């Protein structure tokens, strides 16, 4: 029986799980809702359990030897809360192998490269930059959550679009097509500007903060509008400033998160800025759960993950051996 590992990437809006062999062949995948203690809402262990159960549906659970579970919001004060939830989910899934918890930074960087040195720039629901040396997180910048930081993130963009729409409705700001965009998204049929503003207010506060990140693609689509264009330009500037705060230094640059991996004005501007700074295109981290699985392979075997195994796990189109 081939030994298996598990990798979990628990984000603010989506939790993904991968079960794979030690040579990088994926045997199962699972998916559930968000599991960020700061912004997702709900019971973390239950969400992790759903993702694990789906991935293990056709897999012999006794073959699992090691698992790495990473999550947004699991650093600092959130570390023990996530670790306890992960242990509970692991146990309730009937798994007997060892388990380790890390932050979403480790799994995102590992998803983009097999190398130990470099910088991760992440902009999805949240946003931050992190420098790694010898596989260890050396320094980070931002990632302080939707209320206090995450500058340039999807939620940051969504909140500013809502602010711009409200300002346009009450006369504090210039007219913008974002009003129409927000009305359509929230299905608001109110007649007067005041009624629309109050309906927007009600709808925005009725969802978990992480859900506001779903507005970011709509802002990108509306970038022909001067107000939306300025929001996108500011987001890109914030992200590049965050990157500069940890410095390019040695190693590769990995980008992660929906804002940077999906096409749009923010992604284009940031990628161009990174290319100008490093003279090398950034590596995309396409599958955080696969990155966590790669970490699990390395921890179980006690050796660096071979580039071919990393590429097989993560679906990389580049050759990691040339990094």
From TrEMBL:
Transmembrane segments: none annotated. Keywords: Kinase, Transferase. It holds the Pfam family BcrAD_BadFG. The keyword NAD does not apply. GO terms for molecular function: kinase activity. It comes from the Bacteria. Gene3D superfamilies: 3.30.420.40. Residues 6-296 form the ATPase BadF/BadG/BcrA/BcrD type domain. SUPFAM superfamilies: Actin-like ATPase domain. This is N-acetylglucosamine kinase-like BadF-type ATPase. It comes from Actinoplanes octamycinicus. The lineage of its organism: Bacteria, Bacillati, Actinomycetota, Actinomycetes, Micromonosporales.
């Amino acid at each position: 029986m081939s030994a298996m590992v598990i990798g979990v990437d628990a984000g603010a809006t989506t939790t993904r799980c991968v079960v794979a062999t030690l040579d990088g062949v994926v045997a199962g995948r699972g998916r559930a809702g968000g599991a960020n203690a700061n912004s997702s809402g709900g019971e973390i262990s239950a969400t992790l359990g759903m993702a694990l159960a789906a991935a293990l549906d056709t897999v012999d659970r006794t073959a699992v030897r090691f698992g790495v579970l990473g999550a947004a919001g699991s650093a600092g004060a959130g570390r023990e809360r996530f670790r306890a939830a992960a242990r509970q989910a692991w146990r309730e899934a009937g798994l007997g192998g060892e388990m380790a918890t890390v932050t979403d930074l480790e799994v995102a960087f590992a998803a983009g490269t097999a190398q130990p040195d470099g910088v991760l720039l992440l902009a999805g629901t949240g946003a931050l930059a992190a420098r790694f040396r010898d596989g260890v997180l050396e320094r980070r910048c931002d990632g302080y959550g939707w209320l206090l930081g995450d500058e340039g993130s999807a939620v940051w963009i969504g909140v500013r679009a809502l602010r711009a729409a409200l300002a346009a409705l009450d006369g504090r700001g210039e007219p913008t097509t974002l009003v129409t965009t927000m009305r359509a998204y929230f299905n608001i049929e109110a007649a007067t500007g005041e009624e629309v503003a109050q309906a927007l207010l009600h709808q925005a506060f009725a969802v978990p903060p992480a859900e506001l990140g779903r507005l970011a693609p709509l802002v990108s689509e509306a970038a022909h509008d001067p107000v939306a264009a300025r929001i996108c330009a500011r987001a890109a500037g914030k992200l590049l400033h965050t990157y500069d705060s940890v410095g390019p230094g040695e190693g590769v640059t990995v980008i992660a998160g929906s804002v940077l991996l999906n096409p749009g004005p923010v992604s284009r501007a940031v990628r161009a800025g990174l290319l100008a700074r490093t003279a090398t295109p950034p590596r995309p981290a396409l599958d955080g759960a696969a990155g966590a699985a790669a970490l699990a392979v390395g921890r179980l075997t006690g050796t660096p993950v071979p580039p071919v195994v990393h590429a097989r796990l993560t679906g990389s189109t580049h050759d990691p051996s040339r990094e």
